[in-house]
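Priority: low. Protein: 834_t:CDS:1. Input follows.
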Amino acid sequence: MKFAKEPIIPLRLFLEGGNVLAMFLASLFTGISFYALLYYVPLYFQTIMSVSAIVAGLKLSPLVAGIVIFSAVSDILTAHTGNYRIWILLGFALTTIGCGLLVTLDENSNQGKPIGYLFIAGSGLGSCMQTSLIVAQNAVDFKDVAVVTALCTFWRTTGGVLGVAI
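Result:
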């Protein structure tokens, strides 16, 4: 079998397993959740709550706030403690809880529920989005950092395709 001398995506990143492969999967699942929320929650606000597209977009603010706040908090605490697993696990737990709570919304739900539920989901996404990228970058040699960064983005985007399609 012939292989390229310098492939764009080195096969060793997938064969070594460990943190890199796990973070690719984390990026995939994060993308599924993130893009599904970005696509379907405004549709809920527009069709069920009868608000305009602009208002529906503004109602995503708690999601974005949770992502921003918990991305910063998890990264700072990961840098100080060196423990990243707790943030990724907590992030997926919060994302699952937040998305599960969003499923309970109906036409009779008050305005406060989506705000709280979106903040919970955003907190989870913020906890694991950036943290998984940092873990993947730290798991490889310096020469592979750019490739791993691009692959994490690729898997997150692929997750977005699946999240919106499913």
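Residues 19 and 136 are 6 Å apart (CA to CA). The mean pLDDT is 92.
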